[in-house]
Amino acid sequence: RTALCWLRRDLRLADHAALAHAQGAGRVLAAFVFDPAQLSGLARDDARVALIWHSLLDIRQRLRALGSDLAILHGDPADEIPLLAARAGAHAVFAARDYEPAARARDARVAAALATDGRALELVKDQVVFDTGEVLTRESKPYTVFTPYARAWRAKLAPADAGSLAVRLAADAFLPWREDGAVTLATLGFTDNPIGRAEAGEAAAAQRLAAFEAKIDDYHAARDYPARDATSQLSAALRFGTVSIRTLTRTALAHDGAGAQAWLNELVWRDFYQQLLWHFPHAATESFKPAFRDLPWPGEDSHFDAWRAGQTGYPLIDAAMRELLQTGWMHNRLRMVVASFLVKDLLIDWRRGEAHFAHHLLDYDLAANNGGWQWAASTGCDAQPWFRIFNPVTQSQKFDPDGAYIRRWVPGLAALDARSVHAPWQAKALPAGFALGRDYPVPIVDHAAQRERALALYGKQP
Ligand code: FAD
């Protein structure tokens, strides 16, 4: 018997739910489908496409060494998957469950197309530790507040939940196969991207994990300081599944300390947002809280452009926004601060910021990104209260005290001392040769005034 394993955001061969289940059902042929609906609108050199591509090449090479192959296809999965299943004589197709509304609709179409030939699409849990129905309130309702969710999640966690789902990498476990290899980055209409390429594959993820393990014990104390590089930077690896969530959970459990506990808590946030998106798909496009659905956003387009480009005149904001443009990653503290700034200082709809992040983040994930934006905008279910507004200068003084992070990304401020680098317009003395307005922008808005406007805007809602 033959089973097809359809890879999506689980681009690895180790600890792999869909592969493990497929192997239980027969000899496996693995496949990946580039879906034009997902590729359209991306830049030609999108780093995520390169990350996916090189991860696939790695898998393909390893499967070819076993006499099998990775079928890399391009087209509507509702056509491609049933065709390949028929060609391979597969009786079932296995894939990891995906919680995004568009993915759910796609999977329903693929399941329907397969069913016309009497084949089943078997969706299995892989992306999260606990699935959408596994951590519920006493009334069997989904949690909408994180703290009780996390408590229930931790109480439920048994070693088996983080156990490895072993894949047998042997020739007789896979279907002898050879694809023509006609799909390439170029035929897809994309060019390579060194950032995506560097993050591709299981080995790159394993390296990041090993580097992080060496500092995990300090995570709770250092995680909020972007200059310290104290977080794992495994978000893209998790997003594309070059490492499994179970492997990371096991790592957290193996280190018994405040650092590992705090890190595990972040993995719980990740599960929390996935189940939230599944139970409340409407939040993907509108405010979770009905009261804030019709906020009139008076912000200006020119301010949105300045925010995107890292030209707001607030050094911490600009450093973070420039890091995003250059690397596709941003530290969690800064994601919160720049999101708050866009919404509550510039009074711009959080969905425009969400879309900018979606375009640039290598780790872009609808559930986490939407959850983060709705948290910062106070529109989410368990969000920052609307009257709490980050002060971008105080945040800068607190979390980048000597300005090292700012200087890394805004070289124009390199000569400013640790006092003036957070708010050059307030500095008593600036270095000779430095002119505010020429070497670095004057602030585009006044935080104190905008704070009052935001309070009035939110306060008016029912
Ligand atoms: P670590 O601190 O090492 O955390 C480990 C892992 O836990 C992360 O890799 C991530 O998978 C998960 N995680 C951590 N914090 C969160 C969180 N708050 N919510 C959900 N999962 C979390 N994360 C994304 O993966 N994709 C996004 O598109 C995304 N957009 C965000 C937008 C905003 C406005 C905010 C405030 C947060 C967003 N996050 C997003 C969450 C978080 O900022 C990143 O996961 C984190 O910065 C990634 O860095 P790391 O891997 O070093 O994290």
Automatic annotation (TrEMBL):
Residues 1-129 form the Photolyase/cryptochrome alpha/beta domain. The keyword Cell cycle does not apply. It catalyses: cyclobutadipyrimidine (in DNA) = 2 pyrimidine residues (in DNA). Keywords: Chromophore, FAD, Flavoprotein, Lyase. Binds 1 FAD per subunit. GO terms for molecular function: deoxyribodipyrimidine photo-lyase activity; DNA binding; FAD binding. The record marks W297, W350, W373 as: Electron transfer via tryptophanyl radical. One of its GO terms (biological process) is response to light stimulus. Its cofactor is FAD; (6R)-5,10-methylene-5,6,7,8-tetrahydrofolate. The keyword Flavoprotein applies. Its EC number is 4.1.99.3. FAD binds at residues 219, 231-235, 263, 266-273, 363-365. Belongs to the DNA photolyase family. This is Deoxyribodipyrimidine photo-lyase.
